[in-house]
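Quick start: load a record and inspect it. Here is WD repeat-containing protein 11:
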Amino acid sequence: LGRAMIPYTVNIKLAARTLTGTLNLQNKTAVDWGWQGLIAQGCHSSILIIDPKTAQTIQVLERHKANVVKVKWSRENYYHNLSSPYCLRLASGDASGKIIVWDVVSGTAHCEIQEHSKPIQDLEWLWNQDASRDLLLAVHPPNYIVLWNGDTGTKLWKKSYAENILSFSFDPFDPSNMALLTSEGIVFITDFSYSKPPGSAGKKVYIASPHASPAHTKPAPATAPAPTGAKKALNKVKVLITNEKPTAEAVTLNDCLQLSYLPSKRNHMLLLYPREILILDLELSQTVGVVAIERSGVPFIQVIPCAQRDALYCLHENGCITLRVCRSTVATEEAADPEQSVQELVYDLRSQCDAIRVTKTVRPYRMVICPVNENKAALMVSDGRAMLWELRAHTGKAATNPSSGLSPLYSPVSFCGAPLGPNQKKIQDLSLNSMIGQTLIAGETLPTSSNQQEVQLKFLLTGLLSGLPLPPFAIRMCPPLTTKNINHYQPLLAVGTSNGSVLVYNLTSGLLHKELSVHSCEVRGIEWVSLTSFLSFATSAPNNMGLVRNELQHVDLPTGRCFAFRGERGNDEPPIEMIKVSHLKQYLVVVFRDKPLELWDIRTGTLLREMAKNFPTVTALVQTHLHTNKNVVLYQVKNRYRFLSSSPYSLLQDAESKSETSQAISAREHFVFTDTDGQVYHITVEGNTVKDGARIPPDGSMGSIACIAWKGDTLVLGDVDGNLNFWDLKARLSRGIPTHRGWVKKIRFAPGKGNQKLLVMYTDGAEVWDTKEVQMVSSMRIGRNVNYRILDIDWCTSDKVVLASDDGCIRVLEMAMKSASYRMDEQDLTDPVWCPYLLLPRAALTLKAFLLLQPWSGTFTMDVTQVDYSEKDEIKGLIQEQLNSLSNDMKSVLQDPELSLLQRCLLVSRLFGDESDLHFWTVASHYIQSFAQARQLTVSAAEGQAQSEGVQPSPQSHLDICHDVLCESSYFQKFQLDRVHLQEVKRSSYEHTKKCADQLLLLGQTDRAVQLLLETSADNPSYYCDSLKACLVTTITSSGPSQSTIKLVATNMIANGKLAEGVQLLCLIDKAADACRYLQTYGEWNRAAWLAKVRLNPAESSDVLKRWAEHLCSPQVNHKSKAILVLLSLGCFYKVGEMLHSMRHFDRAALFIEACLKYGVMEANDSSNILFENPLLLHVTTAFLDYARLLRTLGLREGAALWASRAGSAGEQLMEELFQGEGGIPEAILARSLVFIES
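Running the structure step on this input writes:
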């Protein structure tokens, strides 16, 4: 009785999953690395979700019926809270034109979208507006772009174009600009908006292929050395973009593979050709840089430009990834080659990884890079491999090679946007911009080498994920779980492949357990003889006599030892049709096509009997149970054998105990088989004696028997015409069911006592039957609910089936055989995965708050149980798992007391892949520190030292140019001058010259502008105009009358629609502030901001930018997040704090104000009480109070108490509520809050 009470859970829970294999050619472009830190990859009609840090597949999404051609993760550039949580959202498009938006964690489709039935060409989530984060733009062939709401699946608008659209690229700096790559050229759209379709048809430009413009190659001077390949290429592409349609032969050469805006600097674009990358300046529509491949080099297939540094990741046809970084334009003294000083953008090769072996079936498809840190790349190979490369920086000088002309790369001296403390821990390879410093531009000083270290970049392979080989497969699950083997049971699936190897997968984790090279030809079948060993057979291609080489191998899994089971036999004989192991694993029957069967004893490896020549031709074989034994039935149809086994469960324990107690005792086994006429024969085997038994006449209603299965009192026969016959042996009844599905290929009973479910395989799919009720449970058929053909079937547990299919996948499915997406939180992963997006929304926000600030204790902890946190233990456990999965380096940095609040905010936003947080804290951290530094210089030295945190002014303290108008004006001016100098060198037509002169006038470079204006040739219609303009520019004096005349003319021009010309005149008389005002009035906000940065003094510039910020906040623009960044760059910190609070960004507001107070850029006077009485600082207290309330809803009570205590009298009520019924506020918390306020 005591024993009966122990509950045994015999069925180990296996998750439904898909083991994937090689990719389809249509999956080539279906890969994306999201801000969430995961890679999505299309594989046939499924989508794999890969964690690149641990190289594991953590989800497979199945719902598409056609091959997946595009996948895109949604962007994370919005403020995250409980109503807009961290969630994994993915859009995927397939070859039949269907788009599905997924909730990846639960594996369910959020919405499905269908417009046309052709493959989706391109997909992108709109990220650059605050209105909605659900907008999805798609290219539906041949020539439509459609804007969808990805949350509801509604169509917002649709627009058609004249040519076929191949792909598109958004301008990262201006949401209204986008470029379409079409079959004929490029279409530039300047009025893109989410509220209505673009009004115009866009500006169409044609790409004259680099090789199709010989007219523009300059004749080389006689003395000059012959130019190298790259120089030749540069000469060829003097003119690239033309407004006229090129000649017919030029169009055929248009093999542009890709077009992308550069996210590292505004108004630049790259075009990729197989042998060169062209960098265009869009203001001039002119090539300003070329990366060309020498004649012997390997062509490009893809390039990804970086945002943090002006660098390019390039993928070549041999699978090699190279990193090229833009060379500094600072003129070095040793510029020996005078042509080198002719400026152009040069991208130097700084690092490359190893190539792969490319064959007919193995070629690189696509590369993706991590968008958060830009220092990791993943390469997708056509055979299903994903190779994960990491870029590492090694300190040390390069081997000096003067001819290479490579200037050294330096690592920045700061970490997470702040100078490094003396004992501070840092992560060298955190991100690309923490590994190498910025590309210097003309006018900047070279860094002093004392505090900067020179670094070399190297690629390191950190992960490899491989898929199944090409089908066909033969699959067999290991023997089922029983009470006897429960302690050491592993659910192993053996997969025989076409190249002769056997792969063994552990289905708990879905990972490859072992790969064994067993045979020299295609594996035809596998039978397990124990939990750790199996027999597999393979047959070679037949010779002209129809004879083959048969290989039958016995494999021991723990040691990997293989031996030929039939010894020397096997050469030149008819092929083996099947092998069958008797239920007690004592005997093996080997059935041949045109040769009597063989009966072997597995334990001794001896041949018991080879049947006589006149033995009947066997057609079906199954295990029966007569008396105390098991039987096997063999069968053959039209001289082709099929074999199936079933196990009467009642004898399982009995038989197992017999075989375990003594190997010498051999139970009697019965074999039952049918011949070609359907007559049933019966033989008995005991020890090494074989006896013939009874015969049963054939059943007339069945066709040729194809397979038999037996379990308990049920016998099932299947025939070549699709009839199933169910025999109830106890009641002596039989029922025939016509399935009308053609040849019954295989039938198998499910394991488990009393489990009478049956799995049936046909040529066009599979069915599960309940043999007790004689009813079909579920069905799958090619063309109806799946688009793949089934190659082999088996049960893997009592309620799950495993199917091998011709799309190269093996699927573990529920008995209903529906799609195999699963809940990610039910996964049993081998390595823990850092991904806060997998947590519940509340838990993810709690984890973030926990990492951001733990001011309630002197030290930081990584143990969530040490915190006053009221939450279910299960959720606490999940949060702790996330913390545990962080790398040791990351943990030690997060626990480092030297890490400042600003650095911590930046680091956590990187960890979470939170785009919005990252942009905010990068700009905030930079300007809080630079304004603090400026204040410190103005305050007297004694006071200054007290206020500062020892911030040293570093030589390169400016924002990266990828922040564009948010950069310091002085740096922005230098960059624009550098750029106009490059445009001047590169100009090749009057149009270009005119644009350069205009830019120079706006920048105040009048002398150079005059030189350009005087270049106009006499036969040009603008000759007279330009000459007069040159005279005007040189004679302008600051006398009153001339100024007022020019101002009058300028305003008239502007009023009559000549805005650009009027603005130029105003700039000539130093009225740039008026010019900015006019530009803003006419809606040219970006141009006005640009002009303010390059021409105005700080006060005037600040006015212009503040007006811009107000415009960005207006309801019709609604881009407050951008307005906040603009205000940060102006140092309007009070306003920023107020706006953050009004937008209900409570944690960001409180932490920002805290940082401002710490750095002394917001006044808090001497005593902390004044802080709460000053009306200007009222929002400070409310911000602290609201953050305290937020922490309370998350369950972090100590944190809530601390921020409430900072909110003065306003927070007292909340404090009382927090500690109700505990006899007042604990002393410890009061003491800590005082310490916190003082610090």
